[in-house]
Amino acid sequence: MFSVVIANWNGEALLEKCLQSFVNQSFKEFKLYLVDNGSKDSSIDIINGYNDELDIELIKLDKNTGFAYANNVGMLRAFNDDNPYIVTLNNDLELEKNCFRVLKGFIENNKEYDVFQITMINYYNRNVTDATGLSFNKRNFVSQMGYGMSINEIPNMPVDIDGACAGAAVYSKTALKKVQDRNGIFDSRFFAYFEDTDLALRLKNAGFRAALVKAAIVYHMHSATGKKDSPFKEYYLTRNFFLYQKKNNSNMRYYMNIPFYIKAMTDRIIQLLKAKESDCAKARVKGIFDYLRGV
Question: Which of 11, 26, 35, 189 could disulfide-pair with 70, CB 3.0 to 4.6 Å?
């Protein structure tokens, strides 16, 4: 039923826990596509160690191509199997043992949806959620729903959402094939960050509905691969923000919203400078200029 795509880069500290949680799943109708981004650690050995327990296809890339491109490679390979749904998962998570069984039941009973958010709970503090979906305001600023929220609030969350966080998402292959463009399913230009935001907007604009599956749970080690508040992260969050806005708005709407984009970027740069994170602030500025230069 599920084709599971996981991009990995030097994830030796994460993979054992992640892959063992697949072994422990109560529903076994899935195939794993592990796309390795040129890891230099023991990732390949760890993955190969699960060949007898899991249906794994390992795809080895020569270098770190980023989250978007690596997932595209895995998804395109997965298009060739008979499973109707693709699951994208980060390597820094652990699946609750009934996660796929719950997903299967929800999907079969809710055929009006093509996109599904798996509930992401903080791995280290399991009383707190990490993500329950994506939400857009009228200017397409995105918010990660549920971040830092008590798990007691999950029952009160809406089922209908604007899109899914690709760290733990399910997409029908029908929907993905419909919105795939010349840059891929995920836009490979993004490398990392906001690639799922762009995809969510394309799916939403094409009329595909997204749902939160509250009882399907993964435990997520937030930013375990991409460190929090690093210059790398700040750069791609900035450059890719403008990329997804320009791509998913009309020219008129995009230029009308420019003052709001600039204010958001300025506020963040000031915040980073006050926190004495000058390298992160410089990365934000570089992200703006590289977007304008088309880099």
Answer: 35
In our burial notation (b when 16+ CB lie closer than 10 A, e otherwise), range 61-83 reads beebbbbbbbbbbbbbebeeeeb
Kind plus residue range of the DSSP H or E element containing 257: helix 251-274
Q: Distances from the Cα of 222 to the Cαs of 92, 136, 216, 218, in angstroms?
A: 8, 21, 18, 12
Where does residue 205 rank: exposed (0-12), middle (13-18), buried (19+ CB within 10 A)? exposed
Which class would CATH give 2-220?
Answer: alpha beta
E strands of the chain, at which residues?
A: 2-8, 30-37, 56-61, 85-89, 93-95, 115-122, 129-131, 133-136, 142-145, 160-161, 168-172, 210-220
Measure the CA–CA gap between 184 and 162, rounded to whole angstroms: 21
Q: What is the pLDDT along the chain (295 residues), one digit of tens a residue?
A: 999 999 999 999 999 999 999 999 999 999 999 999 999 999 999 999 999 999 999 999 999 999 999 999 999 999 999 999 999 999 999 999 999 999 999 999 999 999 999 999 999 999 999 999 999 999 999 999 999 999 999 999 999 999 999 999 999 999 999 999 999 999 999 999 999 999 999 999 999 999 999 999 999 996 555 456 799 999 999 999 999 999 999 999 999 999 999 999 999 999 999 999 999 999 999 999 999 999 7
CB of 220 within 8 A of CB of 131?
yes
Q: Can you say how many angstroms the Cα of residue 145 is from the centroid of all Cα atoms in its chain?
A: 13
Q: How far apart are CA 186 and CA 74, in angstroms?
A: 11
Q: How far apart are CA 109 and CA 57, in angstroms?
A: 30
Q: Say which residue the tokens 């959402």 belong to.
A: 161
Residue ranges of the domains in the chain? Answer: 2-220, 231-293
pTM of the model: 0.94
CA–CA distance, 168 with 87 (Å, rounded to integer):
7
